[in-house]
Amino acid sequence: MADDLSTTRRPSAALLLMGLVALGISAWSLFGPGTFTWLTTFDGRWLVVAVAGVLGLALIFTPGLRVPRS
User: Can you tell me the distance from the alpha carbon of 27 to that of 25, in angstroms, rounded to the nearest whole number?
Assistant: First the structure.
């Protein structure tokens, strides 16, 4: 049944990411492009390192969070 309340739903990571991108674009349009000049000096390689670290931690800790099904 589609109305079964015992099934759990997980939040969508892609939807969260798209929401954050939309908030960033709206902030940029409200405050103007000159407000975020610190982004021009940002080194993108550190972003790759941060994403890899977060994904690594998620892969380590995610198996421990699973709830056994009965």
Answer: 5
Residue 44 lies in a domain: yes
pLDDT digits 0-9 by tens, 36-64: 777 778 787 888 888 888 888 887 877 66
User: Is 47 inside any structural domain?
Assistant: yes
Number of domains the chain contains? 1
Residues 6 or more apart whose Cβ sits within 8 Å of residue 28: 35, 36
Q: Do residues 36 and 28 lie in contact, with contact meaning Cβ atoms separated by under 8 Å?
A: yes
Q: Which domain holds residue 43?
A: 39-64
Backbone Cα Rg of the chain: 19
